[in-house]
Amino acid sequence: MYSKLAESYKNTTYKLDGHGARDMKVLKNAFDSVDSNTRADAYGKGAVINDFEAKMAHMLGKEKAVFFPSGTMAQQIALRMWCDEEEIHQVAYHPLCHLELYEEDGLKVLHPIESVLLGEKDRVLTLKDLMALDTDISTLVIELPQRGIGGQCPTWDELNAILDYCKKKVIKTHLDGARLWEVSPYYDKSLSDICAGFDSVYVSFYKGLGGIAGAILAGPDAFMEKSKVWKRRYGGDLISLYPYIVSAAYYLDQRLDKMPLYYEQAKVLAGYYNRMKSVYTVPEIPVSNMFHVYFHKDAEQVVHAIVQVMDKYNVGITPYIIENKDQDCMFEMAVGDAYQDIPKETLEACLLELDTILST
Amino acid sequence: MYSKLAESYKNTTYKLDGHGARDMKVLKNAFDSVDSNTRADAYGKGAVINDFEAKMAHMLGKEKAVFFPSGTMAQQIALRMWCDEEEIHQVAYHPLCHLELYEEDGLKVLHPIESVLLGEKDRVLTLKDLMALDTDISTLVIELPQRGIGGQCPTWDELNAILDYCKKKVIKTHLDGARLWEVSPYYDKSLSDICAGFDSVYVSFYKGLGGIAGAILAGPDAFMEKSKVWKRRYGGDLISLYPYIVSAAYYLDQRLDKMPLYYEQAKVLAGYYNRMKSVYTVPEIPVSNMFHVYFHKDAEQVVHAIVQVMDKYNVGITPYIIENKDQDCMFEMAVGDAYQDIPKETLEACLLELDTILST
Description:
Chain A is of the alpha/beta class.
């Protein structure tokens, strides 16, 4: 059943989500305009890496930025350094934090660090959650937007109240900005304004921006210098990271300015879903380019219906469905370049028919 | 003085070492023949990574191989897994081992592992060193060739005596094969023959092969499956590693068969140096494409002489000199594609004049 869904999605010309296939033209396009004689970076040195790091430090409003192969590596290292500095080896984050769910407990296995899960799985963490915390932590991690709940965010005031509270209590704050670009239009703030209250920040280049891989960690100068030692320790100080850096820079240029467009279109698309009888989105009104689509139907029925309309209208809705609680199932949606290509009437007819099939 | 040396080297048309400049045509050449529609790997899955891993497992004669961003990451992980399996958190290696010198103590900081330095800094480790060891170790690391001493190797018989002894004593053996391709012609053995006695092996793609970065760790099936968990823990399980994999595969195809040529030419070049009055190489007769060049002169005099002949003959001898003990200095040499381009008479005249200048 699920392989049929993936196959049907793959065969469609139009896709609702993403920037198109993750294939090698992503790299080729990024390098087409690059001079062959451009020097490679060598162990963190060279214009190709240092210029991009300087650009990112400026964009995020931090003293220094360092390019890492992955956010997993960058964030574990940031937390270890804050824990060492504060001499408290405990950090707090949302129960659906990447560090807790997708890193095989690297933070706890590679470091003497414990995690405290703050707030509830189905909502953003709040100042109230933080104030109720009855143990010492060196660092609070905030993910903006919180991917596991469809990319929700605290309000700007709530966010700043949390950050102010942390400053008062001498708790370091780290921003998991894996999808930070995507949420800037909602807050209607610059990236550096959003980052200003945080002690350190990580951003990613292959999600909303559609690069190949890679991450930036940014923060105070001495902190970032020390992060290079940890990067080497982890085996992340590759002789050359330029394949990721050049593509990161390229797709940042291509897509950063499109974030408001993706955001607006995500709201429109979520509106279509919410008008369907047995479908709802989380959040109801997206605050970024992403949201989760839930069905009050069992997965088999949903897959059958989606395959039927994808095959008929040539529109890829989703390649997968995750079974949730009983008789509920869901998938994640993130608007990118691919959405722009779909004729609006085709999309509307496709989703209308999906609604009809699911309602019978 | 040293910047003048680097500058002079950079300006030469011919280079004695390497495969030419580390610039972005290294990537562009590798990708020129790749179909744009080739799917990217995704978190360790997909034909581009899995096919290459299978090819490498076969070439190295191991059950399974896993592609890593770096050897630093791969080797720390291999040693941690062997230590856990043997329940002995101590490993032994040569004093000039990469793990000891260039990894900011990652092995000891990220893991509960101690190192035992075996043998002496200026020679390969021997069976006798190992037999004199008076503490328990889970694993012995052997680097073939031993880079820190000009790429020396134990004889085939000594190597096998060491491996047999380890088997008897239930000590795991790990091969640091950062330059393994380079030493296969000397042993006159296939890669899988050399690897056969080792429990695990790491190989690199950017040294003798001249790729961009990346490493393979190979070993038993269950061991390698477990290594993927650690790879994720380290933040090395990037969404896509294909920029390194495609280039690794490309330069493997281009250069693996040239290793005997590089080896023969290294012996010829070392011969030139050893005929010079105040110069000698380590080893005297190379056993791979590499060797170290030592001068019984102070560095200033050597740099001055080298710059003089590099400028005159347009041949890059070395971009750097390291001061060794009193009145001695050295540089490392590794023969690659660049050597092929130098007119033999130019090279001979250049080194003859260097000898003359150094002798006055």
